[in-house]
């Protein structure tokens, strides 16, 4: 197994074989997590601090559970986004925490690049739990594991990523990961929610759901990130649902066995029909949550091995 990294900041820095290493190890943790004794001691004696400068339910809970199941001492810092003024404040916080000798720092921040900056200032391993519109590597990894388990492979699949691509770090990390694994990626959404120069990422762009969903194996829906919009991106939620919300009719254009994904939190009736989200024959949304814990255990395990060995 090769994974010579000190931090997990983005998918950008990972090679395909390193992605596979994380996913393979995560499979072992899926088994552990499904058993009666969910405990291992690979992080015993290590301190994990979760710093979330932006709201989170599942990601923070997932990292907390992952650390606890691996035996780490886990602390959650309640960081209010409003009390953080970027730059100096963030670095000061990092240095303060650094003085407490954490081994793993899990950070979510509203500004793209903030987690990379922080990683340069501390001597522990840093895991990016989402920075602005930039990256959300563990989300892309858990999505990849979910896809690999459902489809039996993670290459040469046709995958649609739909909705608010422009504001989505989930989309960005997934585009990078799925591209590295040689899949066909179709982005579907209104032109106002497409990042500029997206064609350079080796993807196809559509503004019509039926056209874009034709024969895809995977349909990944994204939340409308209203908190990152300053108005004018969509005419109305009703109109948006009509054109881009995933319903049975639009899903009918995908392959018969296409799976439906969503990173959560979901806006039912805005980007996805509630019945589709709950359809156990199509939706793997709950499985994504399950894979999240396993993938985070795998990532922290690998980083801790490097810490202990003084590698990377
Ligand atoms: C995503 C995020 O925070 O980037 N959520 C998550 O991590 N599960 C997506 C979102 O907020 O829409």
Kindly describe this structure.
The chain is an alpha/beta fold. The strands form 2 sheets. It has a 5-stranded parallel β-sheet with strand order 7-6-5-8-9. Helix 1 packs across helix 5, helix 1 crosses helix 11 and helix 5 crosses helix 11. The protein is globular, with a radius of gyration of 19 Å. The two termini are 14 Å apart. The mean pLDDT is 94. The site of N-carbamoyl-L-aspartate (NCD) has 11 residues, from helix 2 and helix 6.
Please indicate the percent range of residues in DSSP E strands (runs of 2 or more). Answer: 5-15%
Q: How is the biggest beta sheet arranged?
A: 5 strands, parallel
Strand and helix order = HEHEHEHEHEHEEHEHHEHH
Strands in their spatial order, largest beta sheet: 7-6-5-8-9
Bound molecules: N-carbamoyl-L-aspartate
Number of strands: 9
List segments where confidence is low: pLDDT < 50 over at least 5 consecutive residues: none
Number of helices: 11
Instruction: Estimate percent helicity.
Output: 25-40%
User: What distance lies between the first and last C-alpha atoms, to the nearest angstrom?
Assistant: 14 Å
Using only C-alpha atoms, the radius of gyration works out to 19 Å
User: Mean pLDDT, as a whole number?
Assistant: 94
Structural classification: alpha/beta
* Overall morphology: globular
Précis, in short:
By secondary structure, this protein is an alpha/beta fold. The protein contains eleven helices and nine strands. It has helices at 16-34, 58-69, 87-98, 114-119, 137-151, 169-180, 209-213, 237-244, 248-251, 274-277, 285-309, and strands spanning 47-52, 73-78, 104-109, 125-131, 158-162, 184-188, 204-206, 218-221, 259-261.
